[in-house]
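To whoever is on call:

I kicked off a structure prediction for a single chain this morning and the downstream step that reads the tokens threw a length-mismatch warning. I double-checked the sequence; it's 350 residues and nothing unusual in it as far as I can see. Pasting both halves so you can look.
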Amino acid sequence: MKIMLLRIGLRHNWQQQFRDTCLLWNHVGKTSSQTSIGQRIICRSVRSSARHRNAIQTKFQPIEATGGEPVPLGNVAKAFLFTGAFSFGSFFGASILEYENTRNMMLEKARQAKLSWFPRKTQEGTLQKLKNDLKRHWDQLTPSEKIFVPICAVNVLVFLAWRVPAWRELMLNYFCSNPASRAVCWPMFLSTFSHYSGLHLFANMYVLHSFCNPAIISLGKEQFLGLYLSAGVVASFASILYKSVTAQAGLSLGASGAIMAILAYVCAQYPDTQLSILFLPMLTFSAGAAIKVIMGVDFAGCILGWKFFDHAAHLGGALFGLFWAFYGIDIWQKRLPFVTKYHDWRKTKQ
């Protein structure tokens, strides 16, 4: 099994020209993972026309820089509690989803076996035909594609939302993780679906697609989903903890903390799998060596204070993926008492 490994790093300086006016945005710069962002806009007006100034101010409001702020300890405590509660809820929800999917599959097979004895009506309305076509296309997808497609779709929608000027304040408040902000908890989760750069989005989705299939073969769809969602929040907490220790608050966004957990899990489960780099297929290396090098670079980035990536989020996601690779199967088995109670509760509602 040969999987293409892509790890692209970019620092975005978003530049847009409106006639004679140049705006340099320096507030988003995180790529194949969560990256600290300085929120600052530099406006340089070439002509002092009031018409140009008003048009720009209407579309883009300046943002004050927030980097370098101390992180309140109360926010760190809230982030820790949210991480634990969200991770438990993710795996519990994944267990219930697994139960419901299995139940629906058995009921559908029983219904099909019963209806096979009777002729079926062929008359279909336009709406019903459309629903049937969509269902047929969905059923043709592989299990990994049924997980990847919705995740990718959500990331694309959030990416497009960044392009709506009226939503920019909302996106900064809730789709960027900022440990010094009032809203600390839910941005830890929402920021894992947030990408400002198109190349950032492409790189993360490419890596997720590459490692999604082997991970789902090993974990199953539901456990994979629980791991992915939990890992994103764990990576955000690792970033917040690092920023609190170094007293360097700042914005972070991106799915790569969660993707690093999937990558680390696959590399731990299949260490002898040969990987290669996109556009350099002649260079191959084992998955075990790859995860060691990647984690080593992120560890060095944390120690040396590199700010090009959010190395703490990378490292936190990778460590969580390794933890699940070695201990996840035992933890996942502990869901059975909860599923049994849910089954009993469901019977009382029928």
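Update from on-call: the warning came from a stale cache, not from the record. Cleared it. Sanity check on the structure: DSSP finds twelve helices and six strands in the chain.
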